[in-house]
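Hi Y.,

Following your request, here is the sequence exactly as I used it, all 313 residues.
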Amino acid sequence: MNVFIIDRFPAYFLQALEQLPVQLSYMPDIGREEVLARMPGQHILILNSKVRVDRELIDASANLELVVRAGVGLDHFDLPYLAQKGIKVRNTPGANADSVAEQTLGMLLALRHHILRADAQVKQFQWKRAENRGHEVYGKTVGLIGYGHTGSAVAKRLAGFGCRILAYDKYLQDFGNETVEEVQMNRIFEEADILSLHVPLTEETHFLVDEAYLAAFHKPITLLNLARGPVVKLEALLAAMDTGKVQAAGLDVLENEKLHTLTPRQQKLYEDLFARDNVILTPHIGGWSFESRENICRAIVAHIREHIGAGNV
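Below is the corresponding structure, written out as tokens. Let me know if you'd prefer a different format.
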């Protein structure tokens, strides 16, 4: 069985796959056109987010049986067409949840206590204590949107900070516990001081956080998005920051993360966003820890073993 790997993976992952009865093609540096050219005859495709798994790519191999995503999000997969073709899809839910949760807390604390701004000022020989007085997380109300692997991991860590935690998940029920209250969105709109997003990107969640959504909050909020960039409408976020409805934002994801391909609209919005000292930005690294990579690799090897019937080989 032929396994085609088109993103970069550590040596220990490749060594684990080499112990299985498969033929590996490891080409982490190729682009889409070469991927398409080499798809014929491939049975299993392993990737992160290098290419869209669309009809053209799916049809490039009549032998394709399984596509494995190294990560969680499947918004770049044509899932209906894969199902129509009888091709299995696997991802690695939960493998990077701890990493995302830790970065969520890191961004939150950095924003609430102006850590990045204060650090930059001190390094410029400026000692400004008054303007960097922070707001504690203790006693604040945090609204979590999405309570899957990542949302629940964030809640577990927030509990130690003495927060009130409200969580809304349209597709889960009866998940409340002694530290998390399961609520409807109206409660989060009314009570949240902090909003943290942990939902997949779907047609339903695209621009979920728009002008009307942000206007519904009764209090000014700190907003954290470590989910997917297009969950938040950037124009709406910037406008809400201008009015003070959003006091600060931590974004690990953006609408377009290929910064060399920005449209004129995106370029203008990004320049506005990047100029704000109450915004923290990172390049989609929330789930990018060494430990999460190990978890992802183990999960992928398990998926391959299951598919080929290798058991504990």
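DSSP finds twelve helices and twelve strands in the chain.

Thanks again,
Q.
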